[in-house]
Amino acid sequence: EPDLAAKLAGLVGAGPKREVVHALDHVDLAVRPGEVLGLVGESGSGKSTLGRIVSGIWSQSEGLVRFEGRDRAKLAGAERRAAELAVQMVFQDPMSSLNPRMRVEDIISEAPVYHGIVDKAGAEDYLTDLMRKVGLDPAYAKRYPHQFSGGQRARIGIARALAVKPKMIVADESVAALDVSIQAQVLNLFMQLRADFGLTYLFISHDLGVVRHVADRVAILYLGRIVELAPAEDLFARPNHPYTQALLAEVPRVDMGKRQFKPIEGEIPSPLHPPPGCHFHPRCPHAMARCKTEVPALREIAPDRLSACHLNG
Ligand code: SF4
Ligand code: MG
Question: Which intervals hold domain ABC transporter (predicted)?
């Protein structure tokens, strides 16, 4: 039974200028305690919207988010605050998510002191310990974000999230801005912290290589719908959904010195006007007549494996 559950149906996320976007459509996803659930999708797939809803930064206009079995919207007072602190987000770009005028010590210590997780007297030891745990030298506690490298800023963002003792971390493209060698170090840190603190992760990325490195299970999102959900090993060895298969058709690009995935035929359609039936049909090499009108249900194709494709019957 999922303990941390995000059950989200027919969601509408409200973006910056209060413009309403139908970002997610009947997404029903349960994150299991202690797992790393990878969430993969192209831009416009709704993966960041889902991450923001799960972490409580945005709220859904329909559907519900359950935390430890309880509807999060119905919690109040101390229970609500505990549920909010329990799920923390680590952002894509630490430079824009870290206040440039705050010292690192304040960035990391502000929330735990405010929420009474640590008292003023214990704050310094708490900070020193956290900085060590994320691989930062505590001697740099009085520095400002711009005095650190990209990889170090990522660690500051992680320390800030950890400081309120979360149970779950939502990592949204948290290593996307980093060089490949630094990416590996930060991914290893995430996995070390998982072991040390018993953390659960929703790990959002457009990069299958990154997700393969960390995820226990992987959900593939396409234009606001989950099209495949499977243990990572199975998904990478035997992708079922034609979209997943296309994503995995990897072509190495030697000139760039890093992984590149073969672009899928056709443009990703606008999430505002997704194609009817199976959203993937205009780009799918196996599309049949019914794909243009009938939405394929996400259903079990093997134990613990879900896929949404008419080819499965
Ligand atoms: Fe392709 Fe049809 Fe399957 Fe969609 S439902 S992925 S269009 S075969
Ligand atoms: Mg995004």
Answer: 6-248
Kindly provide the ipTM of the predicted complex, given to two decimals. 0.94
Q: Does residue 283 sit in helix, strand or coil?
A: helix
pTM of the full predicted structure? 0.88
Distance 270 CA to ligand 2 centre (A): 14
Query: What sign does the dihedral 133-134-138-142 (CA atoms) show?
Result: negative
Chain-centre distance for alpha carbon 28: 15
* CA–CA separation, 313 and 304 (whole Å): 18
To the nearest 5 percent, what fractions of the chain are helix, strand and coil?
Answer: 40, 20, 40
Closest ligand 1 atom, residue 290 Cα: 2
Q: What is the pLDDT along the chain (313 residues), one digit of tens a residue?
A: 233 334 343 333 333 434 445 578 778 888 999 999 999 998 888 888 888 888 888 877 778 888 888 998 899 999 999 999 999 999 877 777 899 999 999 999 999 999 999 998 999 999 999 999 999 999 999 999 999 999 999 999 999 999 999 999 999 988 988 998 999 999 999 999 999 999 999 999 999 989 999 999 999 999 999 999 999 999 999 999 999 999 998 655 444 445 555 567 777 787 778 899 999 999 999 999 999 999 999 999 999 999 999 999 8
Q: For atom 5 of ligand 1, which residue has the closest CA?
A: 309
Domains located in the chain, CATH noted: 4-312 (3.40.50.300)
Q: Please give the sequence-ordered ranges of beta strands (E in DSSP) within the chain, or none if there are none.
A: 4-7, 13-14, 20-21, 28-31, 36-40, 66-67, 70-71, 87-90, 168-172, 200-205, 217-222, 225-231, 299-302, 305-307
Residue 246 CB–ligand 1 contact under 6 Å: no
Task: Give the DSSP H/E element, type plus range, for residue 157.
Answer: helix 150-162
Q: Is the CB of 284 under 6 A from ligand 1?
A: yes
CA of 163 to the centre of ligand 1 (A): 44
Q: In whole angstroms, give the CA distance from residue 189 to residue 156.
A: 12
